[in-house]
Design a protein that fits this description.
Helix content: 25-40%
CATH topology of the largest domain: Rossmann fold
Distance between the termini: 59 Å
CATH architecture of the largest domain: 3-Layer(aba) Sandwich
Number of strands: 24
Strand order of the largest sheet: 7-8-9-6-10-11-1-12
Shape: elongated
Bound molecules: zinc ion
Structural class: alpha/beta
CATH superfamily of the largest domain: P-loop containing nucleotide triphosphate hydrolases
Number of domains: 2
């Protein structure tokens, strides 16, 4: 598939398209029961990374938006579908064969794309825009700011669970992207169920796309697959169970099997090397993403209940310890703080009192190093900083050395987050102290999200470290939070609670 060329579905994409639009043999046209002609009420597609789920989803949405997606009776043999009858100038015509099911566009389509997180909406939305811009659709389908305008005031709307205002729209169809991540813990499951009910009320249908899920999480995708309802189309090409994903040769065989229905993917060059790399750091994730297997992880690190129960409205006062997790572009960079009393919070900096959490997407794709440096300088100026644990990361190494030179090596301490032993004990202490309520936090929406995103990644000796469930689900603010707590705990163990002065905040101005 290249830009400007017609989109042709092949392999699993074709198979799933015809199944999604399968018509029951005795279907009749009735404006009151638009759903009745369809064999399936909804479809759930499970596939590995890079198998073409997003472009397929985008194509299906466009078909629902302006294509003949409703049943329009059985052809007798002379009928012709003309795109031009429906406002499209592409010139496409199709002569139905006798006995074939005919299609007609909906009068008005309101379609939603639900994504797990804000930056994940782009997965499907981006190919969607490209498809519109690079072909005849551009004539009558318009890409607007934040949505796509289709004929008759219809629209395609990217949405997340956070944007509650959009959720009330009467949708005629919806696509749930990465529904294997929608759980009741992160509340996206609720949102998706609400959307699905709304769509059913409008006599529409839904599609879910997902990687294999963690069987411990009871996600939307898992529920759909385990449901006994016969009207859900389920597609999932499982690899042979006798192959071991940890063995390189067998891993390659698994890839050949699971990508066999995506004939445009060359597993040798496109999949094997990436999987080999991911296996080193997170074998569970690699097996799920590329091996297309349902692998049980150790589950979530944080529960919504625990996080919420430790949230207070207290004001942070007095000296603090800081935790820093840095990155360059893909991940976020964050600084979190903890007071001597164990109250954790996200500090702010600058004239606009920005939180000390940087999302590269808001800074032209790169972490603004100058901002981070300015923020650290301001924090040291404004607060009495007892300890500052900084993730020992090669990218920020030199900067951390500079901070240590300036503020003292006993204050600024690189923390080896990649050393399993150290990190595991820090995580274990953090979790215990939350359970014991010896540490609490001021609510920070980003840190909460990152905390709920984090998954335990198993390591030898019953230990674990943290991983992110997908590239779009960040955990950096949590990492900074864990380091701030570790710094504060270590400081308290070294007598921070007795030998420092009275609690106060030194204000700069
Ligand atoms: Zn057309």
């Amino acid at each position: 598939m290249f830009e400007g060329e017609p989109l042709l579905f092949n392999g699993w994409q074709l198979f799933c398209t015809v199944n999604h639009y399968r018509i029951v043999a005795d279907a009749i046209v009735n404006a009151r029961t638009l759903l009745a002609p369809f064999f399936y009420r909804r479809s759930v597609i499970v596939g590995p990374q890079k198998c073409g789920k997003s472009p397929w989803g985008a194509g299906m949405l466009l078909f629902e938006a302006v294509g003949p997606s409703l049943f329009a009776g059985w052809a007798t043999g002379s009928e012709i579908y003309r795109c031009s009858d429906h406002g499209c100038g592409c010139g496409w015509e199709y002569e139905y064969l006798p006995g074939e099911a005919m299609g007609a566009p909906r009068r008005k389509s309101l379609l939603g794309i639900l994504a797990f997180a804000e930056d994940q909406t782009q997965n499907v939305y981006e190919p969607l825009q490209t498809m519109i811009h690079s072909g005849p659709l551009a004539e009558f389908v318009k890409v607007r700011e934040g949505f796509i305008r289709t004929p008759n005031r219809g629209m395609i709307l990217p949405m997340t669970a956070a944007a509650k205002s959009k959720l009330g729209k009467p949708l005629t169809g919806a696509l749930g992207d990465e529904s294997g991540l929608y759980t009741s813990a992160n509340r996206v499951l609720d949102t998706w169920q609400t959307i699905r009910r709304g769509v059913a009320g409008m006599q529409g249908r839904t599609i879910e796309l997902t990687n294999p899920w963690d069987p411990m999480e009871n996600s939307a995708a898992q529920q759909a697959f385990e449901s006994r309802r016969p009207d859900i189309f389920r597609y999932y090409r499982k690899p042979p169970t006798d192959l071991d994903y940890r063995k390189k040769r067998e891993r390659q065989q698994i890839h050949v099997h699971v990508y066999a229905d995506s004939p445009w993917v060359d597993t040798k060059s496109a999949i094997d090397p990436e999987a080999d790399e991911l296996v080193e750091t997170d074998p569970t994730q690699a097996e799920r993403f590329f091996g297309n297997r349902l692998v049980q992880g150790l589950g979530s690190f944080m529960t919504d209940e625990l996080w919420t129960s430790c949230t207070t409205i207290d004001e942070p006062t007095g000296p603090i310890c800081l935790g820093f997790d840095g990155s360059k572009s893909g991940d976020w960079t964050a600084i979190r703080a903890e007071t001597r009393d164990g109250l954790r919070f996200t500090p702010t900096y600058g004239p606009d009192a920005r939180p000390t959490i940087w999302n590269p997407a808001e800074w032209n794709g790169r972490i603004p190093k100058g901002e981070v440096v300015a923020a650290v300088a301001e924090l040291f100026d404004r607060y009495e900083v007892e300890r500052f644990y900084a993730d020992q990361d090669p990218i920020w190494g030199t900067q951390i050395e500079e901070w240590a030179l300036k503020h003292g090596e006993e204050t600024v301490i690189p923390f080896p987050t990649r050393v399993i032993q150290r990190m595991y004990f820090a995580l274990d202490r953090y979790l215990n102290d939350l359970v014991e309520r010896t540490t609490t936090h001021v609510e920070c929406a980003i840190t909460r999200t990152h905390a709920l995103n984090a998954r335990k990644v198993a390591k030898p000796g019953d230990k674990y470290i943290l991983g992110k469930p997908s590239e779009h689900q960040k955990i950096d603010a949590l990492m900074a939070d864990v380091l701030a707590h570790e710094a504060a705990s270590d400081a308290r163990a070294s007598g921070w609670h007795v030998d420092t002065g009275p609690a106060y905040i030194r204000l700069r101005r």
